[in-house]
Design brief:
By secondary structure, the protein is α/β, with parallel strands linked by helices. The chain has helices at about 5-10, 20-30, 45-55, 75-80, 100-110, 125-135, and strands at about 35-40, 65-70, 90, 115-120. The chain has 2 domains: about 1-30, no CATH class; about 30-135, 3-Layer(aba) Sandwich (Rossmann fold). Helix 5 (about 100-110) links the parallel strand 3 (about 90) and strand 4 (about 115-120).
Length: about 140
């Protein structure tokens, strides 16, 4: 019998005094409610967004917290993307190597359920935005 089976058996029998099991329960209680991935080539911007969102976690119920992940490289963000993990992507449109529209198309091919919010400090290619939106609309 492995450790996991032993812990399950102890739980089923009402003997939940094992330290390892208690640690697992505590970890589950700290699970975040939503997960956001912020992708922007400006490190100051991603750090600011992260700080503000994580600071807002102090004022809400543990079950409504937001876990923030950031990336300053769109190609790296795509290579490390986990399907069915993130609830929302905040994506800069104007990035080197791969722009936000291209990143969004590739990510939606991996995970059609993730929501995407584009952001930009410059001009926006509205035609590009509409093309991505209508192409991936279910």
């Amino acid at each position: 019998m492995n450790l996991k089976s032993a812990l399950i058996n102890k739980k089923q029998m009402g003997h939940v005094q094992d330290r390892l099991y208690s640690t697992v329960v505590i970890k589950d209680e700290q699970r975040f409610w939503k997960r956001i991935l912020i992708v922007d080539d400006d490190a100051d911007l991603t750090m600011t967004f992260r700080a503000i969102i994580e600071d807002s976690n102090n004022d809400v119920d543990v079950n409504q917290r937001i876990e923030v992940y950031t990336s300053n490289d769109s190609v790296l963000a795509l290579s490390e993307f986990k399907p069915n993990f993130y609830d929302l992507l905040l994506v800069d449109i104007n990035m080197p190597r791969m722009n936000g529209f291209e990143l969004c198309e590739k990510i939606l091919a991996i995970d059609i359920n993730v929501r995407v919010c584009f952001m930009s400090t410059g001009e926006i290619n509205r035609q590009g935005l509409l093309h991505v939106y209508w192409r991936n609309k279910p």
